[in-house]
Automatic annotation (TrEMBL):
A UniProt-annotated Pfam family: Methyltr_RsmB-F
Name this polypeptide is given: 16S rRNA (Cytosine967-C5)-methyltransferase
GO BP field: regulation of DNA-templated transcription; RNA methylation
Keywords annotated in UniProt: Methyltransferase, RNA-binding, S-adenosyl-L-methionine, Transferase
Biological role: May act as RNA methyltransferase.
Residue ranges constituting the SAM-dependent MTase RsmB/NOP-type domain according to the UniProt record: 192-477
GO molecular function: RNA binding; RNA methyltransferase activity
SUPFAM superfamilies named in the record: NusB-like, S-adenosyl-L-methionine-dependent methyltransferases
Catalytic residues in the record: 415 (nucleophile)
Lineage, highest ranks first: Bacteria, Bacillati, Actinomycetota, Actinomycetes, Streptosporangiales
Family matches, as InterPro entries: MeTrfase_RsmB-F_NOP2_cat, MeTrfase_RsmB-F_NOP2_dom, NusB-like_sf, NusB_RsmB_TIM44, RCMT, RsmB/NOL1/NOP2-like_CS, SAM-dependent_MTases_sf
Amino acid sequence: MNDRSRSPYRPARRGPKRRGTPPPAPKDPARRIAYEVLRAVDARDAYANLLLPSLLRERGVTGRDAALATELTYGTLRRQGTYDAILDACVDRSLRSVDAEVLPVLRLGAHQLLATKIPPHAAVSATVDVARKVVGHHRARFANAVLRRVSARGLEEWLPIVAPDRAADPLGHLAVVHSHPRWMAEALAAALGDAPDGDLAETERLLAAHNERPRVTLLAKPGRAAVADLIGDGATEARYSPHAAYLPEGDPGALRAVRQGRAAVQDEASQMVALALTRVAVEGSDARWLDMCAGPGGKAALLGGLAGQRDARLLAAEVQPARARLVAGAVERSVRDAARTVVADSTRPAWRAGAFDRVLVDAPCTGMGALRRRPEARWRRTPGTAAELAPLQRDLLHRALDAARSGGVVAYVTCSPHLAETRDIVAAVRAERSDTEPVRAADHLAEVPDVAVGDHAQFWPHRHGTDAMFLALLRKL
């Protein structure tokens, strides 16, 4: 056999392909899947938390390969800003000029080199092998050259080279070191009350927390499961919510209560803001509750269970039919079948004004409070995203107040701490109405320390280990 026939770039001749024979599985399924998810996030705004599990199931990838694919995907997305700064120093031209198909390969390799225990030669070799299959031999050689330059230094050696000087530009330094767009670091510092040129210690703790893997929190749906059921299957007692438990490890779908729909994954702050709404005293009737933006159904499942236990009824409205189906599945078999799901646009209410005793509006937002679980959101949002959402948020809060009866209570919730979609929205709506008064949210969250921001409540990953949920409670006069 001559050297030409042994070339790894020349496929061997094979006989006719049998009909129905599936294509051979990739030799490195973890890196291949991670690459495909990263590429889809860039190219079509895919959601990693939806696409990654789907690809793992579709290709039968489990065990160590599934764990590696998960670490490579989420680790790369979380630290993308830092890696891009380092890669930009390692290419001969601007990183912006690199082919869109090649960039995920470079980021994937950078993560292995700078943040994992994979030996550098193995990280480069394995990543370049994937590159040959997905972007071709020529561009794989380019990736190989860049990654070898990255491997010349460790992360702590690279940061002083690529990050702005901390003394001269504190926020710029933190944005690169902790992998956030600068505008987002500025918005988060403002929400915390940190001055850009002052002590940014808490801002740094928050940015660092966004790059940590969040724990899995479970909701035992009231009336259908107890926390003891989850603890019996390996979960541990939660810190705040009486309906929550933490799963230290493993697949939550393997738990019997989760498989049966009696429990679900839900962040503890999401549980607590819904519970706070149910704890506010209302005079007179307390039989009609409304969840105006119910998809995908986590808070509706909790509210529906509590409503049934109190002889109340919950109407869960969702404008998108697909998400409404998720809501219907989440609230199915609630206590006394207390929850009903409808497809409805809450900005054009299908119900009469003043019909409800309690109203939850979990408004669409930037999602800046869930950056641990959805790390790609930090690269998908822009400085103008909050301003674009503000009219809808104001409209929904107005319609929520219209839907509440006199003496009823409204909870305005966002999974974001950004002032432009939290306190500013509430202040703007209240300035346009004379029929509301604030209810101090922290008074109804007695289990949670350090959550009060004036009359409102703000959860934080670095303080509470939860998503950064915002809550304002308003009573209709």
